Amino acid sequence: MYPFVHRTLRAPSLMILLMLMPHVAALPQSRSPLPEHSGGGNTGVSSDPVPVAEQSWKAAVEQKLDLMGHRNWILVVDKAFPEQSSPGMTYVYVDQGLVPVLEEVLGMVAAGGHVSPVAYRDLELNYLSDKEVPGIESLRSESDRLLSGHPVRFLLHEEVFSLLDESSSLFTTLVIKTNCTLPYTSVFLQLDCAYWSPEDEKALRERMDQ
After folding, report:
1. What H or E segment, with its residue span, contains residue 202?
2. Which of 6-10, 61-65, 149-153 has the least mean pLDDT?
């Protein structure tokens, strides 16, 4: 009945053990209490919670941004942007539109205070209309509004890729893929130092050459 009772136990000891077993079995089992919510079903979650996925990608970008600086890149791209084999490229997928993600990223870059973006865009974007690609004109207008106040340079798509290929061999590039399915809409942000401008650098070099 009780396999853990060794057969060499003497009879009196065995009798005592058998007498105690029902009492041991009747002891109440200890359980950890479940956490209780306070106040009328309040779970401690705000009335307008941020989705977990959104919290995750923002936290990942903010953490990465702290490590990035002059000559690093952040790309906010459409869904067809290819995954490249370069070890210097890190990818994050966000199941949101390109414009709201771009707005969030620009806000995080500005809040960091140590870098400022120089935007590169595909020149092909300027030659597309709603006739060929429905919705392209609205996206172009909204993204232009977000990038106002920042330098924006237009290059042919292949030229932008050449820049990225050259840079990613030395400097980290963060690629944030969105669910946007409109062509040539990606925004390529090359980070520059926010507290030392190209004009400052040029003046410094001129003094050094004197």
Report:
1. helix 198-209
2. 6-10
Cβ 170 vs Cβ 72: under 8 Å: no
d(CA 11, CA 53): 66
Lowest mean pLDDT among 28-37, 86-95, 178-187: 28-37
Higher pLDDT, 47 or 57: 57
More confident residue, 122 or 168: 122
Contact 178, 57 (CB under 8 A): no
Closest by CA to 181, choosing from 78, 82, 111, is 78
How far is the CA of 4 from the CAs of 1, 7, 8, 127, in angstroms? 9, 9, 12, 84
Paired tokens of 110: 């500005």
Which domains are delineated in the chain?
52-201 (3.40.1650.10)
Exposed, middle or buried by CB within 10 Å (0-12, 13-18, 19+), for 81? middle
Residue type, 202: K
